[in-house]
Design goal:
InterPro entries: RraA/RraA-like, RraA/RraA-like_sf. By secondary structure, the chain is an alpha/beta fold. Helix content is 31%, strand content 25%. The protein contains seven helices and 13 strands. The protein has helices at residues 7-14, 19-24, 60-68, 90-98, 113-118, 173-195, 202-205, and strands spanning 36-37, 45-54, 73-78, 86-88, 103-107, 109-110, 123-125, 127-128, 139-141, 145-147, 150-152, 157-161, 164-168. The strands form three sheets. Strands 1, 2, 3, 5, 7, 9, 12 and 13 form an eight-stranded mixed sheet that branches. A three-stranded parallel sheet has the order 4-6-8. A two-stranded antiparallel sheet has the order 10-11. Strand 12 (157-161) and strand 13 form a beta hairpin. The model has no long low-confidence stretch (mean pLDDT 93).
Length: 211
């Protein structure tokens, strides 16, 4: 029997897969509603969750998280969905990128949207606004958080692309990977049948289909 894949191998593997396929194989339950990419999307973000909970409009604990950041981490910020003040901008995303972060996910607002939009560094959020944050706290780091209705625990795998963000625990990730790859193969065969004009509606009857 082959050895179980290591965490880094699992994360690399999910970097090649689309979030809708992952979501379908998580019973379509986990998923951050209302968050979208603000960066120049050039691939799939995948990494380990470094979670932050902060009061709405305050980014003191995001600054603290930057000092704890390990390469490959995705900073996941529960900002309560508040859009009245930006929690990060060009400077903080640049710091995160320079320290090897895989991306940043904000349940709240960002600013410097133009600069972030020209960068390939993954940044997901609800909206953009020019108003800056408070820096007073309180907050917490490496605790379970909720972003867009999705619970994310410290160390969970976080994946993001043009369709949004999904997260799941490392436990069970290998089985999930196998299921996602199997669905990807089924959908590739369906697309081939469409191109060859032999598709007969099988996808509508198959579990996991949504298009």
């Amino acid at each position: 029997m082959a050895d179980a894949p290591q965490e880094s191998e699992l994360i690399d593997a999910f970097r090649a897969l689309a979030t809708p396929l992952i979501s379908d194989n998580l019973a379509r339950v986990p998923g951050a509603a209302g968050l979208r990419p603000f960066h120049r999307v050039s691939g799939v973000m995948a990494g380990r969750a470094l979670t932050v909970r902060t009061r709405p409009g305050d980014n003191q604990f995001i600054h603290r998280a930057l000092d704890l950041l390990q390469p490959g981490d995705v900073i996941v910020v529960d900002g309560g969905g508040y859009e009245g003040r930006a929690l990060v901008g060009e400077i903080m995303t640049s710091v995160a990128a320079s320290r090897g972060a895989a991306g940043i996910v904000i349940d709240g607002a960002i600013r410097d949207a133009g600069a972030i939009g020209r960068s390939p560094f993954p940044c997901f959020a609800r909206s953009a606004i020019h108003l800056g944050p408070y820096k007073d706290g309180p907050g917490a780091i490496n605790v379970p958080v909720c972003i867009g209705g999705m619970v994310v625990g410290p160390g969970d795998i976080v994946v993001g692309d043009e369709d949004g963000v999904v997260a799941f625990p490392i436990d069970g990730a290998a089985a999930l990977l196998a299921a996602v790859r199997a669905q990807e193969a089924r959908e590739a065969e369906i697309m081939l049948s469409i191109r060859e004009n032999r598709y007969q509606g099988a996808y509508a009857r198959a579990s996991g289909g949504s298009h």
